[in-house]
Q: What sequence folds into this?
């Protein structure tokens, strides 16, 4: 198998952890007789500095030709005061939309020996293993009009969805639930929003096609509570773009291992962009101390979702778990009696295990 | 001082806890030589059953004439399948809008001997004392168009704000911060939404008028994380309607005492509607076991915000604290070595203390 992968390091620690993913993928390629070719491009702040735009055409074209894209992280204080169209996150939003990466999957699962650093009590969080399926290319993020009116006296944004956009993400979530524990929680605000009412209707319509999946509807405010009071009740959560942004970040801190969480953003045909949930962490960038695990696990998701290499993905995931179980950890984590290592050493430990 | 108060019991345990508030207010009136007159009206499911609408004209007219309104709770499974305009929460949304109750204040503070039932570790949650100021009559909740198009193939909701609507809620929050610890966190999604950009600009403009308040901007996804990882970093949080709905419910479970949390919804002139944060709890309705504290503390907020009776409000709050400190609690709470009491007995204990 030959696959062409575009690497987008982006900004901050993105530039460091992307190399970890490449090293791990090279080890997998060697071990399992696969061919991965890599091509690196700029995005975000780095692209603004070099080309005056957060998403240069060359970057976008390369991504369109690729079998999959790995992204480090974008953003940093340097560009925070820029006008909207010159902000690093525009690059990220632009590529999601241009590649039609409508399905954002964020698996959240605790690591046994990290659970102690969760803000939640261990008995509350233990056993949590959930997947948030967030719609990523619609809703308030891309709806128009999004503008000021009457000389800035009025402002509007538009929460826009087509039935098709809702149907495809709901299907994705049902399929994911079927492959997991068969439980789907659809989150909306159907007591207020017309878009949520249509969302709920579509979930109800689709139910018949997935008789093996148990479906539940939860209002977004209630979901924000339940994630904290009883996170282990969830299997798959599906929701629209903005609710998904909030709830997936909320969920990401539950297990005390934000530096370990990967994400996948998929198109219908399986092409995908894979990135850590954490940001560019400008405060620790360039010091060689960043935790590469979220990036490495994102590469594992790429193998699973874009290349159907489920076994190879599992090898990476097992390697990460084994290295953590041996007590090795990066500076963002505390492991009693553990040994603190840098980005490079952590990567090497995982590569060696593979 | 003479004040006229409209009581809206609503549904479920609302009907029980509203009496507790009335009893406590009567005790305060007697003790401090005040005159409170009461008038009861229907809202929500109860109003649908009696009058075929969740917000009858007589109810609305009475509220318009009142100095303040106390509301129990609305909703229940009986009306869950009703069409939108016949759902209990429409009554609540309708009255907020009709009375222009744009400022929703939700103070969240842990009770010492309840903190142990927080889902968070005690060292994470202890010391938390925050106030969420939520814009309540704008944004996605009331913006138009909110409709289906092209035969249900498209759906839109509109996040609409006028500059004035943002200015008045931001002012309210600055004033609240000034009376508390002088710290204001404005929550938005300025990296995506045009409305958030205007929101952030207005907060920046207003800063000059409140030089004694320290202001910070946090993105809504980051705020959802920080509320869990470090809730005690917040003093006052101000945000738009939908973000406020999600974050205030998220915050309400942090201290382990949802049954204790009051809220105030205010108009510019001080008229207000006061209601518990919890819902109508149909599962325990009619059994005399509901926790009346959130409702009683809502009455205290009424004294403070609508009647400027700060001292009398404090008397109620102290009474609640003292009764809890003596180990009395309702069935929703666990207090080691405490004594479990019903709604009526809990109310009597608080009244007796006053
Ligand atoms: C950077 C930002 C625009 C982005 C989003 O809101 O989608 C981020 O928060 C995310 O969740 O990937
Ligand atoms: C009942 C519902 C419409 C309401 C809201 O979303 O505002 C409730 O959740 C609240 O927070 O008071």
A:
């Amino acid at each position: 198998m030959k696959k062409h992968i575009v690497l987008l390091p982006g900004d901050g620690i993105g530039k460091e952890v992307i190399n970890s993913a490449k090293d791990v993928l090279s080890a997998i390629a060697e071990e399992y007789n696969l061919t991965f070719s890599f091509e690196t491009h700029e995005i975000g702040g780095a692209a603004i500095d070099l080309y005056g735009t957060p998403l240069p055409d060359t970057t976008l074209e390369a991504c369109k030709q690729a079998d999959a894209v790995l992204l480090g992280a974008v953003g940093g204080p340097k560009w925070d005061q820029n006008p909207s169209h010159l902000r690093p996150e525009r690059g990220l939003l632009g590529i999601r939309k241009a590649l039609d990466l409508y399905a954002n999957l964020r698996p959240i699962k605790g690591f046994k020996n990290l659970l102690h650093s969760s803000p939640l009590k261990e008995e509350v969080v233990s056993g949590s293993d959930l997947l948030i399926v967030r719609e990523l290319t619609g809703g308030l993020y891309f709806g128009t009009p999004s503008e000021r009116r009457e000389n800035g006296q009025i402002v509007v944004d538009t929460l826009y969805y087509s039935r098709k956009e809702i149907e495809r993400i709901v299907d994705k979530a049902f399929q994911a639930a079927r492959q997991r524990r068969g439980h789907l929680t659809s989150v909306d605000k159907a007591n207020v929003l017309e878009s949520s009412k249509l969302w709920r209707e579509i979930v109800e319509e689709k139910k018949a096609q997935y008789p093996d999946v148990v479906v539940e509807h939860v209002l977004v405010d209630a979901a924000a509570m339940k994630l904290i009071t009883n996170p282990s009740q969830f299997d798959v959560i599906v929701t629209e773009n903005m609710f998904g942004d909030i709830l997936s970040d909320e969920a990401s801190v539950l297990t005390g291992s934000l530096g370990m969480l990967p994400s996948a953003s998929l198109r219908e045909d399986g092409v995908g962009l894979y990135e850590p949930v954490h940001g560019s962490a400008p405060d620790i960038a360039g010091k060689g101390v960043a935790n590469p695990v979220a990036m490495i696990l994102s590469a594992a998701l790429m193998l699973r979702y874009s290349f159907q290499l489920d076994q190879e993905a599992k090898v990476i995931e097992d390697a990460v778990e084994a290295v953590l179980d041996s007590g090795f950890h990066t500076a963002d984590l505390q492991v009693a009696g553990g040994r603190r290592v840098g980005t490079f050493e952590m990567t090497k430990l995982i590569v060696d295990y593979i």
User: Anything to note?
Assistant: Chain A has a mean pLDDT of 96. The CA atoms of residues 224 and 250 of chain A lie 8 Å apart.
